[in-house]
């Protein structure tokens, strides 16, 4: 047996090389392109997901900030409302006290005026009664004194008449 070159093996190697070239040219490059495109798509999707995640985080922060601002504003509004309510309550109390003071002063003035009027009437009545009593007393005194004097004058006159008759 002789060693003859076996061309089958060479043809298999050539076929293999051609297959590799063909696969590389028609399948490997498109497959690499497809893989690259897929990789780029995945990368862009990941970047997009990261951007969306960051945007969601920013929106969440903004939402939290707005929520906190709204709560703070609500607390401020409540505090202001309480303050205004307290101020209004104090104003109402002060107004009520002033009104009570005015009513009390008016009542005191009316009482004082009524007292002055009552004292004036009492003074007038006491004056009238005193005048009446004094008039009666003086009338009685004058009448009694006058009566006494008249009696004495009459007696004196009688005495003089009796003495004059006795002298004659």
TrEMBL record:
One of its GO terms (cellular component) is plasma membrane. It is a single-pass membrane protein. Residues 32-117 form a coiled coil. It comes from the Bacteria. F-type ATPases have 2 components, F(1) - the catalytic core - and F(0) - the membrane proton channel. F(1) has five subunits: alpha(3), beta(3), gamma(1), delta(1), epsilon(1). F(0) has three main subunits: a(1), b(2) and c(10-14). The alpha and beta chains form an alternating ring which encloses part of the gamma chain. F(1) is attached to F(0) by a central stalk formed by the gamma and epsilon chains, while a peripheral stalk is formed by the delta and b chains. GO terms for molecular function: proton-transporting ATP synthase activity, rotational mechanism; proton-transporting ATPase activity, rotational mechanism. It is found in: Cell membrane; Endomembrane system. Its main location: membrane. F(1)F(0) ATP synthase produces ATP from ADP in the presence of a proton or sodium gradient. F-type ATPases consist of two structural domains, F(1) containing the extramembraneous catalytic core and F(0) containing the membrane proton channel, linked together by a central stalk and a peripheral stalk. During catalysis, ATP synthesis in the catalytic domain of F(1) is coupled via a rotary mechanism of the central stalk subunits to proton translocation. The chain crosses the membrane at residues 6-28. It comes from Anoxybacter fermentans. Keywords: ATP synthesis, Cell membrane, CF(0), Coiled coil, Hydrogen ion transport, Ion transport, Membrane, Transmembrane, Transmembrane helix, Transport. The keyword Transmembrane applies. InterPro entries: ATP_synth_B-like_membr_sf (IPR028987), ATP_synth_b/b'su_bac/chlpt (IPR002146), ATP_synth_F0_bsu_bac (IPR005864), ATP_synthase_B_chain (IPR050059). Belongs to the ATPase B chain family. HAMAP family: ATP_synth_b_bprime. This is ATP synthase subunit b.
């Amino acid at each position: 047996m002789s060693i003859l070159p076996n061309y089958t093996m060479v043809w298999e190697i050539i076929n293999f090389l051609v297959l590799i070239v063909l696969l590389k040219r028609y399948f490997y490059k498109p497959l690499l392109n497809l893989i690259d495109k897929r990789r780029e798509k995945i990368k862009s999707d990941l970047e997009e997901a990261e951007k969306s995640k960051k945007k969601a985080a920013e929106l969440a922060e903004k939402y939290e900030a707005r929520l906190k601002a709204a709560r703070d504003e609500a607390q401020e509004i409540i505090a202001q409302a309480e303050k205004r309510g307290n101020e209004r309550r104090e104003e109402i109390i002060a107004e009520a006290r002033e009104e009570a003071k005015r009513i009390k002063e008016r009542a005191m003035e009316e009482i004082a005026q009524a007292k002055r009027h009552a004292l004036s009437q009492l003074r007038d009545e006491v004056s009238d009664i005193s005048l009446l009593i004094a008039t009666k007393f003086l009338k009685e005194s004058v009448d009694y004194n006058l009566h006494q004097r008249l009696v004495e004058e009459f007696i004196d006159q009688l005495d003089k008449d009796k003495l004059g008759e006795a002298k004659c």
